[in-house]
């Protein structure tokens, strides 16, 4: 069953680095109620937030911080160095070039939207934390690792689902309250998600959380991106602090 699930995951994760599955601990089968998605599942009543008519794109052929309009919301500085490593501290918003921009897909200001770049293994942990995720490739400090994706729901629906999840001891809700104001929307990764569904909590995590805007300027609709807090060797479990959700 694990081999079948591994094949299914990779069939779903089109154009993404390989996902391995490993269980050397017990006979727990893979989850049967999980649907792999690579992008957030956004309900149709929120489509207007991603209307390209409201986007402002740059006219650059080769983007630089001085010439490009997109990083102006980030203080006029590119969030990434030439290797794609984040240069900001967590808490500062990142505005990437978008689908209305003239620059190429290889633009320095397009990182999160290009997706995960490291191979990972979903594995059964030895410490009773269920499934976890470890990297199969070395990761550099400040390198993008993966995005937290799931079903985008309203805050009211999140409150309702959260009561059931809390009772079951589950944590899959990530509030999109980047500006610390009222939270209108939440990402629920319980049923729909990517490898981030399986990433465990740590009080000393090796991943940092950033809000990234790509094809919307709505302040309440960032994408949630994980970047490495330090160099992470191949074979190490990746973790983040659930209090950030």
Automatic annotation (TrEMBL):
<feature type="binding site">
    <location>
        <position position="63"/>
    </location>
    <ligand>
        <name>Zn(2+) 1</name>
    </ligand>
</feature>
<dbReference type="GO" id="GO:0005694">
    <property type="term" value="C:chromosome"/>
</dbReference>
<feature type="binding site">
    <location>
        <position position="60"/>
    </location>
    <ligand>
        <name>Zn(2+) 1</name>
    </ligand>
</feature>
<feature type="binding site">
    <location>
        <position position="203"/>
    </location>
    <ligand>
        <name>Zn(2+) 4</name>
    </ligand>
</feature>
<feature type="domain" description="SET">
    <location>
        <begin position="118"/>
        <end position="243"/>
    </location>
</feature>
<feature type="binding site">
    <location>
        <position position="97"/>
    </location>
    <ligand>
        <name>Zn(2+) 2</name>
    </ligand>
</feature>
<feature type="binding site">
    <location>
        <position position="63"/>
    </location>
    <ligand>
        <name>Zn(2+) 3</name>
    </ligand>
</feature>
<keyword id="KW-0862">Zinc</keyword>
<keyword id="KW-0539">Nucleus</keyword>
<dbReference type="Pfam" id="PF00856">
    <property type="entry name" value="SET"/>
</dbReference>
<dbReference type="GO" id="GO:0008270">
    <property type="term" value="F:zinc ion binding"/>
</dbReference>
<feature type="binding site">
    <location>
        <position position="58"/>
    </location>
    <ligand>
        <name>Zn(2+) 1</name>
    </ligand>
</feature>
<feature type="binding site">
    <location>
        <position position="107"/>
    </location>
    <ligand>
        <name>Zn(2+) 3</name>
    </ligand>
</feature>
<dbReference type="GO" id="GO:0032259">
    <property type="term" value="P:methylation"/>
</dbReference>
<keyword id="KW-0949">S-adenosyl-L-methionine</keyword>
<keyword id="KW-0479">Metal-binding</keyword>
<keyword id="KW-0156">Chromatin regulator</keyword>
<feature type="binding site">
    <location>
        <position position="70"/>
    </location>
    <ligand>
        <name>Zn(2+) 2</name>
    </ligand>
</feature>
<feature type="binding site">
    <location>
        <position position="103"/>
    </location>
    <ligand>
        <name>Zn(2+) 3</name>
    </ligand>
</feature>
<feature type="domain" description="Pre-SET">
    <location>
        <begin position="56"/>
        <end position="115"/>
    </location>
</feature>
<feature type="binding site">
    <location>
        <position position="97"/>
    </location>
    <ligand>
        <name>Zn(2+) 3</name>
    </ligand>
</feature>
<keyword id="KW-0808">Transferase</keyword>
<protein>
    <submittedName>
        <fullName>Uncharacterized protein</fullName>
    </submittedName>
</protein>
<dbReference type="GO" id="GO:0046974">
    <property type="term" value="F:histone H3K9 methyltransferase activity"/>
</dbReference>
<dbReference type="InterPro" id="IPR046341">
    <property type="entry name" value="SET_dom_sf"/>
</dbReference>
<dbReference type="InterPro" id="IPR001214">
    <property type="entry name" value="SET_dom"/>
</dbReference>
<feature type="binding site">
    <location>
        <position position="101"/>
    </location>
    <ligand>
        <name>Zn(2+) 2</name>
    </ligand>
</feature>
<dbReference type="Pfam" id="PF05033">
    <property type="entry name" value="Pre-SET"/>
</dbReference>
<feature type="binding site">
    <location>
        <position position="68"/>
    </location>
    <ligand>
        <name>Zn(2+) 1</name>
    </ligand>
</feature>
<feature type="binding site">
    <location>
        <position position="58"/>
    </location>
    <ligand>
        <name>Zn(2+) 2</name>
    </ligand>
</feature>
<keyword id="KW-0489">Methyltransferase</keyword>
<dbReference type="InterPro" id="IPR007728">
    <property type="entry name" value="Pre-SET_dom"/>
</dbReference>
<dbReference type="GO" id="GO:0005634">
    <property type="term" value="C:nucleus"/>
</dbReference>
<keyword id="KW-0158">Chromosome</keyword>
<dbReference type="InterPro" id="IPR011381">
    <property type="entry name" value="H3-K9_MeTrfase_SUV39H1/2-like"/>
</dbReference>
<dbReference type="InterPro" id="IPR050973">
    <property type="entry name" value="H3K9_Histone-Lys_N-MTase"/>
</dbReference>
């Amino acid at each position: 069953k694990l081999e079948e699930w591994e094949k299914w995951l990779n069939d779903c994760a089109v154009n993404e680095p390989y996902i391995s599955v490993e269980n050397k601990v017990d006979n727990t089968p893979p989850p049967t109620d999980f649907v792999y998605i690579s992008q957030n599942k956004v309900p149709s009543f929120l489509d207007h937030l991603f209307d390209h008519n409201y986007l402002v794109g740059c006219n650059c052929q080769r983007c630089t911080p001085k010439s490009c309009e997109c990083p102006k919301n980030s203080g006029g500085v590119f969030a990434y160095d030439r290797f794609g490593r984040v240069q900001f501290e967590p808490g500062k918003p990142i505005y990437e070039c978008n689908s209305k921009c003239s620059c190429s897909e290889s633009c320095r200001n397009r990182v999160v939207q290009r997706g995960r770049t490291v191979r990972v293994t979903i594995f059964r942990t030895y410490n009773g934390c269920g499934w976890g995720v470890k990297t199969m490739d070395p990761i550099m400090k400040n390198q993008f690792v993966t995005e937290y994706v799931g079903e985008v729901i309203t805050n009211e629906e999140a409150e309702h689902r959260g009561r059931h999840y809390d009772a079951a001891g589950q944590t899959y809700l990530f509030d999109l309250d980047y500006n610390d104001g009222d939270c209108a929307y939440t990402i629920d990764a319980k049923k729909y998600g990517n490898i981030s569904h399986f990433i465990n909590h740590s009080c000393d995590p090796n991943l940092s959380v950033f809000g990234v805007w790509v094809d919307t300027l709505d302040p309440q609709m960032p994408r949630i991106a994980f970047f490495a807090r330090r160099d992470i060797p191949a074979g190490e479990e990746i973790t983040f602090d659930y209090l950030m959700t």
